[in-house]
Amino acid sequence: MSDNPRICVDPGHGGSDPGTVWGDYREKDAALSFVLDLKVLLDKKGASSIVTRSTDKYVTLSERCVIANAYHSDVFLSVHLNAVPKEKRLAGIEAVGMETWTFEGSKKAMAFAEEILEVVGSGFSGYHIRGVRETNKFHVLKGTTMPAVLLELGFIDSLHDRTLLQGVESRKRLLQLVSDGLLHACADLCT
Fold first, then answer.
1. Domains in the chain and their CATH numbers?
2. Model pTM greater than 0.90?
3. Of the residues 6, 139, 141, 143, which has the maximum number of CB atoms within 10 A of its CB?
4. Which pLDDT score, from 0 to 100, does residue 189 have?
5. Nearest to 102 by CA among 67, 52, 137, 126
6. What is the DSSP string of 119-157?
7. Distance CA 103, CA 175 (A)
8. Is pLDDT at 149 greater than 80 in this prediction?
9. How far apart are CA 70 and CA 145, in angstroms?
10. Buried/exposed 80-114: b ≥16 CB within 10 Å, e otherwise
11. What is the pLDDT of residue 1?
12. pLDDT tens digits, residue range 9-46?
């Protein structure tokens, strides 16, 4: 890896796909806003970053992978918001916090995901860290050639998480920590 890590950041959903919606708060908008601000921070810190979409448009999962692979990214991060399934929510089950997903068996992606959660968890005492989960189902994790992580910033249906994600200072802190985690992961893994 060069001194300037190449990072592809993917705001989930977009266009005709709103993702999860809670009142007037839509996952596609929250993810896009977060990613655009994250790109600014990463670039200020010397990274070379791109985003898979910079407006509210729909980009297919395959197109997202093509963008990351063509850019020869060192790492790929797809940003989303989580939600408790409706039937569980109706049963009174609630959840809060950040979690990451990696492709099953990818040790580099696992280390990348753990690094992000470690940095956020140690720097933001009010944020619950749910851990790393593995899957073989998410197309953006299996269609990319670099370590790839899907980051669930928090739960859109949690007042606690929405307050942190929408608060000016807490959102600024979260952006700072996620960018630090990304850059630490690149320094450690992308050699």
1. 6-189 (3.40.630.40)
2. yes
3. 141
4. 79
5. 137
6. HHHHH-TTS-EEEEEEES--HHHHS-SS-EEEEEEEETT
7. 24
8. yes
9. 10
10. bbbbbeeeeeeeeeebbbbbbbbbeebebbbebbb
11. 41
12. 999 999 999 999 999 999 999 999 999 999 999 999 99
Q: Is 81 helix (H, G, I), strand (E, B) or coil?
A: strand
Query: Residue 48 and residue 29: Cα distance in Å, rounded?
Result: 23
What confidence tier does 191 reach under pLDDT thresholds 50, 70, 90?
Answer: low
Calpha distance 98→180 (Å, rounded) = 16
- Specify whether the CB–CB gap between 100 and 118 falls below 8 A: no
**Structure tokens that stand for 108 in this block:** 């580099």
- Per DSSP, the three-state class of 176 is helix
Q: Which tokens sit at 189? A: 């893994």
Residue given tokens 């408790």 in the structure block:
84
